[in-house]
Amino acid sequence: MNTILVVDDEPQIRRVLRSTLSKVGYHVLEARSGEEALEKLHSSTPDLILLDFNMPRLSGLETCRAIRATQDTPIIMLTVRDAETDKVDALDAGADDYVTKPFGTPELLARVRAALRRAPMLPATTTLIRLGNVEIDFGAREVVGGEGHVRLTPKEFDLLWCLVAHANRPVSHRDLLREVWGPEYGGELEYLRVFVNHLRKKIESDASAPEFILTEPRFGYKLVLPGQQQAE
Amino acid sequence: MSVAIIYAVALVERQFDHINPTTVALSMMVALLGIASQWGFIESMAASVAGTLCFNYYFLPPVGTWHIAELQNAVSFGAFAITAFIASRLSANARQREAEAITRKQEMELLYALSSSLMAIGRDRPAAVQISEHVALAFGFEGVLFYESDSNCFYQTGRKPPVTQEQLRESVEKGVILTGEGFRILPLLAGGKTVGSLALPAGSASRTAKQSIAHLAAIALDHARTQEAMSLAAAARQSEELKSAMLDALAHDFKTPLTSIKAASTALLAEANADDHELLEVITEETTRMANMVSDALEIARVEAGHFQPQQHRIEVARLIDGALERRTGRFLGHPIEVRIESGIAEVSADIRLIEMVIGQLVDNATKFSPPDSVIRIVAKQRGDFVFISVIDSGEGIAEEDRAHVFERFYRGKIARHRTPGTGMGLAIAKEIIRAHGGEIRVENSHGEGCEFVFSLPVYV
Question: How many DSSP H helices and E strands does chain A contain?
Answer without folding.
Answer: 8, 12
